Amino acid sequence: MIDHAQLFARALNVAPGGVQSPVRAFRSVGGTPIFMQRAEGPRLVDVTGRTFIDFCQSFGPLLLGHRDADVRAVVQQALEDGWTYGCCEPYSLALAEWIQAQLPWVERIRFVSSGTEAVMSALRVARAATGRSRILKFDGCYHGHADSMLVHAGSGLAGEAEASSAGVSAEVAAETLVAPLDDDDALDRVFGAHGSAIAAAIVEPLPANYGLLAQRPAWLQRLADRCRRAGALLIFDEVISGFRIGKTGMAGLLGIRPDLVTYGKVIGGGFPVGAYAGRKDLMEWVAPAGKVYQAGTLSANPIGMRAGLASLAKVDAMNGWTVLDRRAEQFCGHLIEGFASLSSRLDVVRHGSIFWIVRHSEEPVRRPANIPAGNSEWFSRFFHAAIARGVYLPPSSYEVGFVSLAHDEVTLTTAAEALVAAAREVDAP
């Protein structure tokens, strides 16, 4: 019989750490990774045939759940027609026109193959358009694994950064400034010291890679104002939040118009698709229109383009973002009610259809430093107790959960009961 431990032992012989992306190794929660073999709707099925209610949903893009029938039909037709051309095709045009029609800040768009690639390209555009070299990012936001984004705050002057990954040179790290989230004074200090050298500030308007660190709209507006006054560009990284938090993402919800914006695999219906977009005058810097080089043989892959448009159009037609919000609100309400009897208090943080279960804090958690002590250790126990009850959460206390339209009320009620039981099992005496 197929066994997870046997598969992982084999994987260790062929891949670094036995995985193709670090979080899959279960280092944050302990134990042996679970190998999944198929999925349907709100559920994953592992190689032993066990079924789990899935709140990972491939880390967010599956608005309709796994293998939606209408999207699957479009993908099957795409396979019949051909899965890569390396040529111009009408499918990326159709998706680009649909996105442009929804979002007034998307005057031009370029499709790529990942969120990391989108961020890397947007930063290059910003540097070219402004003639400046420095980028401002924020602790607690994740922007993929481009060298200049793998940095954290240093111990020196305001904004100075150090590499957070081996292989990133000190010279590259020095071009990135780092400031804390939700700190007006620190923001002012960084712009006061470096404003004339900053090409762009990049931020997740809803940080969702270090827990769900919802920011004050006033702080985000302050950031936008400081960028404008300094002549720096504002880049919204909406790789997770774009088309997940409503059709217009966080930019639309906040009423803040970014200069550039990045999107991820949600616009590809879960296929490996990303994009960077924004003002026409900025995007016209990109080759072949301008001097910023960026290319990709598999950019605008026709399968991802067709799946993405089918997924987004279906969600739009069924008022899906409103339905998602309502279902997630009810689900999180059931969790909050069930957690109320625990001796160790838990919070359920929600924004739209994204949620995060975390140990209780007296104040909203807006920075990584404010995550309650011991949360990672607690979550490790909670994660495995949830797994034992047939619920799959992303395997890290810093990852968030996602509700899809495939999670109907019965499924969500079952999952809530299982998660409450899991929390009771690991509740501190």
Q: How would you state the average pLDDT, rounded?
A: 96
Q: Strand percentage, roughly?
A: 15-25%
User: Could you give the order of the helices and strands?
Assistant: HEEEHHEHEEEHEHEHEHEEHHHEEHEEH
- State the end-to-end CA separation: 39 Å
Describe the main β-sheet briefly: 7 strands, mixed
Q: What characteristic shape results from the CA principal axes?
A: globular
**Whole-number radius of gyration?**
21 Å
Largest sheet: spatial strand order? 4-12-11-10-9-5-8
Helix content: 25-40%
Alpha plus pi helix count? 13
Unreliably modeled segments: none
Number of strands: 16
Which class of secondary structure composition applies to the elements?
alpha/beta
Describe this structure in words.
The protein has 429 residues and is of the alpha/beta class. It contains 13 helices and 16 strands. The strands form four sheets. It has a seven-stranded mixed β-sheet, with helices on both faces. A four-stranded mixed β-sheet has the order 1-2-3-15. A three-stranded antiparallel β-sheet has the order 13-14-16. Helix 7 links the parallel strand 9 (198-203) and strand 10. Helix 3 packs parallel to helix 10. It is globular.
